[in-house]
Design brief:
With 446 residues, this protein is mainly alpha-helical. It has 14 helices and no strands.
């Protein structure tokens, strides 16, 4: 018996907004300003990033409608390409998720560091100490079986949107004196500056790809999916442009380049030093909530892979008393800690995360062309189909390849970084074939 769709247009709109608005908007504008060097490239990157995100969300919505399978990317890659490619990409995305959590944890540490550590630790080492300590505390809490409720997460997204609107209100404060700091111009040509600016922009707009999991759950999908995605991304784009204009209005490009704890700085403009401290603490707690959810969620991906026999059975082991995947969670925490030992700066972490994500997401988007051929029987059945095909997915794919190339070019400063990224993909293939080789029946000798 098939399950009836239950999500309406408003539900999906809120899901899209919730998936996209994370913690990045409170830190990444500083990185975008550094790479952009001027206001035109800065705002151009945010507008272009929003339009590309809309194309991506629509593309993944049709993928989800055509292949509504639990397991999202893993199942789609396996169906459209090959199980080995599916595992390799998802293995890398699992590592990328750990790096992404580490990157967001670094954001929180930058906010709270001035209040916790002495002057001699107001540096990358201090940020690393706070980040690793925070992750380990959450690890212990989760190990005991304590979970965060869905209600707390809903309150968190409302808090984030309220925080953005509060920051934007700085524009209307009459006695705000813009911070005059000369901007550092971009290095190289404008195309490179624009491409590198998009790295942090795409990171901040990320999350929409999870619409792949809701294709079969939407009431009147053909009409509601494009409208919900359009409204959701439009709300995000307006919020992001508004907060970035507020940052720019008060700090200027030069101030943006030199202010990592942007949200606290902006609220401090409105409410003074007390507002600065309260906001810093609240951002840090929001970061902990984000990290905590990922610590609970990501081991479940390992569980699914272990069920398919790709990862060892130990990843399926659950403590019957606490219902905690102890080994899977420990593996995820270990990946975060190892990454933090090698990379302590948010900007450096961002390059690794987005290198993996741009390759994985663009390959996932290419699957729409294969799916349209494999599922022609679904055409005209009422499922959602992209109106301007193939233009919409091509805009997304080409834009992400453009960013991938720009990231790869920056790796020339550190060739080991490129080797690490490529080696991660190779390790995924090795693990897959080693796991499947064991399952092959042995032919008896006659």
């Amino acid at each position: 018996m098939s399950i009836k769709p239950k999500l309406n247009r408003f539900d999906l709109t809120m899901i899209v907004i919730s998936l996209v608005i994370g913690m990045g908007i409170f830190a990444t504008p500083s990185e975008v300003a550094i790479k952009a060097g001027n206001a035109w490239i800065f705002f151009g990157a945010w507008i272009f990033g929003g339009l590309v995100t809309l194309c991506g969300a629509l593309t993944f919505a049709e993928i989800g409608a055509r292949y509504p399978a639990t397991g999202g990317f893993y199942k789609v890659f396996s169906y459209c390409y090959h199980p080995a490619i599916a595992f390799m990409i998802n293995w890398v995305l699992v590592i990328s998720n750990a790096a992404s959590v580490a990157a967001v944890a670094l954001i929180g540490s930058d906010y709270i560091r001035p209040f916790l550590l002495p002057a001699n630790l107001q540096n990358d080492l201090g940020t690393k100490i706070i980040t690793i300590t925070s992750v380990m505390v959450l690890y212990v809490i989760n190990f005991l079986g304590i979970k965060m409720s869905a209600r707390a997460q809903n309150l968190l997204i409302i808090f984030k949107m309220a925080m953005i609107l509060l920051i934007c209100s700085a524009v209307f404060k009459n006695n705000v004196t813009p911070v005059v700091i000369n901007a550092v111009p971009h290095v190289g040509n404008m195309v490179t500056a624009f491409g590198l600016s998009l790295v942090a922009v795409f990171f901040t707009y990320g999350g929409y790809q999870q619409t792949i999991n809701f294709g079969g759950d939407i009431i009147n999908a053909k009409t509601n999916i494009p409208k919900a995605v359009f409204f959701g991304i439009t709300v995000v784009l307006i919020l992001y442009l508004s907060i970035n204009y507020a940052y720019f209005h008060v700090l200027g490009i030069g101030g943006l380049q030199q202010t990592p704890a942007l949200a606290a700085k902006m609220v401090g403009v409105i409410f003074g030093n007390t507002g600065y401290k309260i906001t810093s603490i609240m951002i840090f707690l929001s970061v902990l909530a984000y990290v905590n959810v990922n610590v609970m969620a990501n081991p479940r991906v390992y569980y699914a892979m272990a069920e398919d026999g790709i990862l060892p059975p130990i990843f399926k082991k659950v403590n019957p008393k606490t219902q905690v995947q102890e080994f899977g969670m420990s593996f995820f925490i270990a990946a975060i800690i190892i990454i933090l030992f090698f990379v302590a700066k948010f900007s450096e972490m961002l390059k690794y995360v987005m290198f993996f994500d741009t390759i994985g997401l663009s390959m996932a988007a290419v699957a729409i062309f294969l799916l349209r051929k494999k599922t022609k029987n679904l055409d005209g059945t009422g499922i959602f189909m992209i109106k301007w095909f193939p233009l919409v997915p091509l805009i997304f794919i080409i834009s992400y390849w453009f960013v991938t190339i720009n990231i790869f070019i920056t790796f020339k400063e550190n060739p080991y970084a490129a080797l690490i990224c490529l080696a991660t993909y190779v390790v995924g293939l090795v693990i897959y074939y080693a796991s499947t080789y064991k399952k092959k029946p042995v032919t008896p000798i006659t």
